[in-house]
Amino acid sequence: MYLEKLQVRNVRAIKQADLRLSSRVNVFTGINGSGKTSLLEAIYLLGVGRSFRSNQIKSVINDQVKDLSVFGKLSEPASDSLGISRDRQGKFKVRINNQDQNKLSSLAHYLPVLVITPDSYKLLTSGPQYRRQFLDLSVFHVEHGFSSVWQRYNKVLKQRNAQLKRASSYKDIAIWDKDFALLAETLNTQRNREFFHLKSHLEDIQGIFLPQYRVQYRYYSGWDLTSNKAFSEQLKLSFEMDKRYGYSTLGAHKADIKLTIDSLPVQDVLSRGEQKMLVNAMHLAQAKRLSEDMRKFCLLLVDDLPSELDINKQRILLNELFSFSKVQLFITAISTIDTSLHELDKKEVVTSMFHVEQGSVSQL
Fold first, then answer.
1. Which of residues 233, 259, 293 is at a domain's end?
2. pTM above the 0.70 mark?
3. Tens digit of each residue's pLDDT (9 = 90 or more) over 143-190
4. Cβ-count burial of 73 within 10 angstroms (0-12 exposed, 13-18 middle, 19+ buried)?
């Protein structure tokens, strides 16, 4: 199964595009600003319901119209059809097999989409929320009850934080902490279980991409698991500090993945190009986990593959990508010349090449 057909309407500069896609590798070339990244954005919209480039959907819609739409058809034996439209007010319409859906998350269950962009190094250099989101994407596709638990946890967290601003003693928020602790511990169990599997794949791929380094990977729950005090007791002890700050300082919303080399943060040791290779390894480990362990077909979007990678690193990355049999690749580059992409015709991989110019897409 793979994304066989893609129809895009009014996604940034792409007013209209109707594409038949390769089951393995699809390459979009064109100068900067031509619209090639907008095609990846359209695919991401189809799988996630939002953009990976902007939190404001109105900035994704072509300036001359009021809404956008993306439609996709999966290959046999599933032959499922997926569609989404969004307007400038943020309203959406999702249809799967001609049936209306009331949640954007309905798309993600059908079409797991992973994306690597030139900004993906922020996974290492920015705050813990980026690494939580990375881990939670895997947990979402593996643990069926994760989404519900995550939503309930965040609802209780907001209630607890609001009560902290009014509480005069711990008994004023104790009523929230029973559910808060239970939900946090459930999320922690799910995340820790998934991290174990991801770490195994990550160590293998990082050994190929950056064999000169020994990277340590550690999952942090958001509170002290080594303490002899239960999480509920830690919450009670943290009340005064929580009240002073006005928010909960412990919990699953503080979880993180710690990456170090010789006890130093990886970003303090690795060059920018090496950081990108490590981030690529993280995303490929996730793709391998979903496609091989969980037998889920998934899409991997790679925006500007040559960015900050020399020819040798590009070859290493592509060779690993091509080893995945249940991952459909979508790659953008200004040109295949002077990149490892010009070697695609030498590889036994089914490839479709497209050129994008001023929002118009043509197959080569």
1. 293
2. yes
3. 989 999 999 999 999 999 999 999 999 999 999 999 999 999 999 999
4. middle
